[in-house]
Design goal:
395 residues, alpha/beta, eight-stranded mixed β-sheet, two-stranded antiparallel ribbon, globular
Length: 395
């Protein structure tokens, strides 16, 4: 498929772009969902390097293969939105991993007077400079996006989750003819969408985007929505009426690969909770909501689909492998992640200190990157298997 080519397929006077041809061609569809998690994005990228190598060996041209050649829709939240954009543009996972290694210290270095209480903990300029170099003034209708792209963010002024995506048949991609005040999604700058998705409260300033006429929306990190793990949202996008994809569900028709950034399950004692200041208890409660949403998403997808990577959700429901949603499997579902605990990492042959584990509870510690990459590589070597990707989904 050559970029820039225009297809005429939808009636007189209408045109179909390369991307539209890609999104709506007959055959099975593949989705890649990328969790949020700051510098923990390197864990996802280390696993994606392995997935890219596995899929490249099965492609017609392994030397030029990219994940964008396989996945029809790539979406992410927060740091996942940056990775999703790079992959959608045809970057290799290894290129993005190198980028994270180089830039983590620049992005996550705060002025000595900044504590994230009155103002943001980190300045936005270093990340904006990175995005200027990678995506420039690219908008969501740019032909350099080789596959579907979805960026999850939270509009705080209306308390609603927004997914900014590049499906040319979606409801708000173009401005309605009867609404001259509308601002079409196709004109949203990709860099602005990413900055909106990563604007974690206290870490970065909110992002203010024009949404219609003179109306401005205030956007913060998509991780404060239920979709820090965007897998369920992307499945709904692909199969429900409103987003315009209308992809066919079924275990032979839809594959969803979900990438985590490390699950922390550090337990507290009741006495610890009792002694906490109210403000700290509130912050910790909010953090656990993100984890709860992640596990609920995994439970629902394991219940709705066939999953060779199914994990135990909790002691009561197990991995749901004996449970099936009425009507049969809706998708082929894969999930790759690591549990950041001494016992779990010990199964990989990795020994970590309590100080390392404490540091890895935070998403803004560049000093944890090399250890997280090691964890991601060892998880991928053990858990990513060729048979996880059925031949029926090969391009």
């Amino acid at each position: 498929m050559r970029r820039g080519k225009v297809w005429r397929e939808r009636g007189e006077g209408s045109v179909t772009t390369d991307l539209e041809q890609r999104l709506f061609r007959v055959g099975p569809k593949r989705i890649l969902a990328l969790d949020g998690g700051g510098v923990h994005g390197v864990l996802s990228l280390a696993m994606l390097c392995r997935i890219e190598a596995v899929l490249a060996r099965r492609s017609a041209d392994p030397e030029t293969f990219r994940l964008a050649d396989y996945f029809d829709l790539i979406g992410g939240t927060s740091t996942g939105s940056l990775i999703a954009t790079g992959l959608s543009m045809g970057m290799r996972a290894a290129e993005l991993l190198k980028l994270y290694r180089e830039l983590a210290n620049a992005v996550f270095t705060r002025p000595f007077w900044s504590f994230g209480v009155i103002g943001a903990k980190f300045p936005s300029e270093p990340l904006e400079q990175v995005l200027a170099r990678i995506v420039g003034d690219m908008t969501l209708d740019d032909a350099r996006l080789r596959t579907g792209l979805a960026i999850v963010t939270k509009r705080l002024d209306t308390r609603s989750t927004w997914v900014l995506h590049n499906n040319p048949r979606s409801r708000y991609f173009e401005a309605p003819a009867d609404d001259p005040q509308a601002f079409p999604n196709r004109r949203i700058r990709v860099a602005d969408a990413i900055m909106a998705s990563v604007a974690a409260p206290t870490y970065f300033e909110p992002r203010f985007l024009r949404v219609a006429g003179t109306e401005i929306g205030a956007f913060v990190d998509g991780g404060v929505s239920p979709h820090n793990n965007p897998s369920l949202m992307l499945l709904m996008m692909a199969t429900t009426e409103g987003f315009g994809y209308h992809w066919r569900s079924g275990v032979e028709h839809l594959l969803l690969t979900s990438m985590g950034t490390g699950l922390t399950r550090r337990r507290r004692t009741a006495d610890h909770v009792r002694s906490q200041p109210s403000a700290m208890m509130a912050v910790e409660s909010l953090v656990t909501i993100v984890q709860d949403s992640n596990l609920q998403t995994q439970a629902l997808l394991q219940w709705m689909g066939h999953s060779p990577t199914a994990r135990v959700i909790n002691a009561e429901i197990g991995d749901l492998s004996r449970d099936r949603i009425p009507g049969g499997d809706l998708l082929w579902y894969l999930r790759y992640d690591a549990e950041l605990s001494a016992a779990w990492l010990g199964t990989l042959g990795i020994r970590v200190s309590s100080d390392e584990l404490a540091a890895m509870e935070h998403f803004d510690r560049p000093q944890t990157i090399e250890r997280l990459i090691e964890i991601g590589e060892k998880v991928a070597a053990r858990d990513v298997r060729d048979e996880h990707f059925p031949a029926g989904f090969d391009v």
